[in-house]
Structure formats: C-alpha cells, structure tokens
Amino acid sequence: MSLLLGLLPLLAGLLVGSAQMFEVIHFKSGENFLCRSQALQVQNQLSQHLDELLALNPRARRLRRSYEKTLRASQEALKSGLVKLAAALAAAAAVIYVQRLQLDAQQRIILAQAQHRVSELRTDLQHRAKAKKQVVSVIGPKRGLAVTEVEKTKPGPEFRLARNFEEAQVVQIKWLGQHKLTWLPTKSLSHFTCDIACAATIANETGGILPTLRRMVWQVSLAKVR
Questions:
Q1: Percentage of the chain surpassing pLDDT 70?
Q2: What ranges do the domains of the chain cover?
C-alpha cells in the first residue's frame, strides 16, 4: 500500500505529461491541417485563373496575326497608290488593335484576381495570427501566377508558363507563436512554441509549355518548404 502511495506522484506526473503531450500533438496536427488546406485551396483557385489566362492565348495569337496582316496590306496598298484601299485597311487594323487592347485589359484583370487571391490569404492568416499573437508569412508568385509574356506579342500578349513552373508557382505559409496549454498547465510547461510551415504548388501533368486547353490537367499538390 505504501509503495502504491509512493508511486502516486509519479503516476500523476505521467498522467499530466501525457495529457500535455496529447494537447501539443493535437494542436499541431490541427494547425498543420489548416496550413495545408489553406495552401491547397488557394492553389486550386489560382489554377482556375491560370486556365482562364492560357485559354485566351488562341484569341491573342489570332488578333495579333490579323492585325499584322491587315497593317502590311495597308502599307502595300499605299505603296501601290491605292489610297482609299490603304485607308480602309488602316481603319480595319485600328479596330483590331482596339480589340487587342480590350483583350489585354481582360488578361490584366485575371492576373489581378490571381494576385488578390494570394494577398487575401495573407490578410486572412495575418488576422487570425494576430488574434493568437502569432507571426505569419505567406510567400507566393509576384503576380499570383508564374507566367511570362511571349516577346513581341503586346498588347494582348500570349502567356506561357515560367521556367521551373512548379517551383516558381509555390505558395508557402509559415507561422510562429506560442500556444497556452488549456489542460493541466504546470509551472514547468504552461506554453509551447507553435512552428508551422507548409507549401503547395500546381503541376501540369500533361507537360509542355503551352498545352492545349483540352489536354491540360492541373494537379494541386503539397510542395517542399524552402
């Protein structure tokens, strides 16, 4: 009996330690899940914007070629002394150029929406972190999408995936702070550090720089934390 009584403090300590350890593991698992789900969710949204942007490439290419062809025809007509025809073709080229400007504006809106998705995620997580006295950082592509403009195709350019797209498209989330134990805190352990990091990217499973829309399959997946 006396032996059992002597073991009670040890058993109580083990119980408290186990409970605290369970709370730490449970909390970090929940935070890790939230981190990954947020990173995957924003990439799912970005992949939709990426589809929208690349789907405009055929129109961008068609308008550019039509504009260049019409402009050349106008210049040739002028050289041949066909002034009225040259003027009509120049007017047609001007109309096409306006269409290219309209397309350019549409593309900029898509890029702005993509950039807003990352900014919105950053703001939401910072607001959540502030309430818990944590520090959070969200790093992602500068424009939301890791794409580049094909040279000499402005306005209304064609877009292609940036080099090393999967790496360039990574959205990384990190947050650091202390969490107060809610169950059986002790003098030796009342808080613990919450250090969470995760990342996600978009992979083009079909390969290629400018795959056709019908063949394009985006796979959003977790990525290595830098």
A1: 71
A2: 17-222
